[in-house]
Design goal:
S-adenosyl-L-methionine binds at residues 75, 126-127, 143. The chain has 218 residues and is an alpha/beta fold. Helices cover 41% and strands 23% of the residues. A seven-stranded mixed β-sheet has the order 3-2-1-4-5-7-6, with helices on both faces.
């Protein structure tokens, strides 16, 4: 990966991280490409796209997380946003869950390579995690779900009563879809408290972070 381009992307996005963290992100990206030649970890294989659509996108998310919060990434795939998050906030406890074993093997490889502490990559369905980790997490996130209802329904039993859920999505849907989502979430006892929209560097698309909390805590 071109380190100069990654630095430009980070600067263009208005983000600030250390040189050590940039080198760690590059190591992650290079390993992702290497492993992806043998097992399907990501459909994004171009260096520039990996820099923007995986790494920088995850760094936008990281800005919304406090250092001492415990984070769960559901359906984490190749470890996004959980691995970039862990790189820039190394003290943060992070649990990354995916039902595909090869993706978890890759994440564990990265965790060993980068010497992560307080990072768990679990090959488990999120429903099974509910048995051991109910009400355990301050923040639950995912890029994996097209449906906010499904995301909240699966994550809610794992969320601390004062916690929040953050869905990483594409451009904001139309008002009719938003209203439908709000109604479905209300039935689950949750509400959308904020939507943060942002643009990826170099006109690479728009993204949204949808912040969701229990109605009683909102």
């Amino acid at each position: 990966m071109n380190s100069v381009f990654l630095r430009k992307c980070i600067s263009e996005a208005g983000l600030e991280i250390t040189e050590y963290q940039i080198e760690a992100l590059i190591t992650f990206a290079e390993e992702l490409k290497k492993w992806n030649q043998k097992i399907n970890l990501t459909a994004i294989t171009n260096d520039d796209e990996i820099a923007i659509k995986h790494l920088v996108d995850a760094l936008f998310f990281a800005n919304f997380i406090g250092t001492c919060e415990t984070v769960l990434d559901i359906g984490s795939g190749a470890g996004i946003p959980s691995i970039p998050l862990k790189i820039v906030k190394p003290e943060m406890p992070v649990v990354s869950v995916d039902a595909v074993a090869k993706k978890i093997h890759f994440q564990r490889h990265i965790a060993r390579l980068l010497k992560f502490d307080h990072f768990e990559a679990l090959h488990v369905r999120v429903e099974e995690l509910q048995k051991t980790s109910a009400n355990s997490f301050d923040v639950i996130t995912s890029r994996a779900f097209s449906s906010l209802e499904t995301f909240v329904r699966l994550g809610a039993p794992l969320l601390h009563e004062s916690g929040r859920m953050i869905a990483m999505k594409g451009p904001i849907a139309d008002k009719e879809t938003q209203l439908k989502d709000e109604e479905l979430l209300a039935d689950l006892g949750f509400k959308i408290i904020d939507v943060h929209s942002y643009s990826l560097p170099f006109n690479s698309g728009k993204r949204s972070l949808i912040l969701i909390k229990p109605c009683k805590a909102a």
